[in-house]
Specification:
By secondary structure, the chain is of the alpha/beta class. It is about 45% helix and about 20% strand. The protein has helices spanning about 1-35, 90-105, 120-125, 140-145, 170-185, 190-195, and strands at about 60, 65-70, 75-80, 110-115, 135, 150-155, 160-165. The strands form two sheets. The protein has a five-stranded mixed beta sheet with strand order 5-4-3-6-7, with helices on both faces. It has a two-stranded antiparallel ribbon with strand order 1-2.
Length: about 200
């Protein structure tokens, strides 16, 4: 009888130790998986004014009337979204921008920018119902920020400094600019690299 109890205890301890090993292996795999599916922020291309630098100031005519001021110490943050009427991803993000404009209106102004022919953009502005946004056309603005791919966003802080920028294809990438600003880093990738 004692031998049977001894054997069963040894067997149970072997099972428990085996389970501990399996749990540790699963925890490690979950950690690896978490790193692989970590949020992908806006893809920052190392061109134009850098994050942390003072944003170049512009005062531009808006398609809907009035002026669009870019940069400067305004006391509010500004999301400058570069788009094109022929860019399908830009069009996909317009409802997201409207939502962000509504939800983040306490601290953030959203503005649209592009270059090209005014009649084409005016038609796009009307058809896409963009009257709630300032929308300016300026080749100089795009050249200053060295915009080569769209859609591209630049987050300018309330102090007039660039707080985030990059190629954005989704709401998550747009919001990654806000997260990077809050974390005090240039991008989410930089934040993840610092923690690795």
């Amino acid at each position: 009888m004692n031998e049977a109890m001894l054997v069963s205890n040894v067997f149970l301890w072997a099972v428990v130790l085996g389970l501990v090993v399996v749990v540790l292996a699963l925890a490690r795999q979950i950690g690896i998986l978490y790193e692989r599916v970590a949020p992908m922020g806006a893809l920052m291309m190392d061109q134009g004014p850098k994050v942390g630098e003072v944003a170049p100031a512009f005062t531009l005519d808006s398609i809907g009337g009035g002026k669009l001021s870019v940069g400067g110490h305004t006391g509010r943050s500004q999301l400058l979204f570069f788009l094109s009427p022929t860019c399908p991803v830009c069009k996909k993000l317009l409802p997201v921008l409207k939502s962000i404009q509504n939800v983040e209106k306490g601290w953030l102004d959203v503005a649209l920018a592009s270059d090209g022919d005014l009649p084409e953009h005016a038609e796009f502005y009307r058809k896409a119902d963009l009257k709630s946004f300032p929308y300016a056309l300026s080749t100089d603005l795009g050249m200053t920020y060295r915009i080569s791919k769209l859609p591209y966003a630049v987050l300018i802080g309330e102090d007039g400094r660039i707080r985030g920028k990059g190629l954005v294809n989704s709401r998550e990438q747009l919001e990654s600019l806000f997260t990077a600003k809050e974390a005090g880093v240039a991008s989410i990738q930089e934040f993840i690299d610092q923690r690795a």
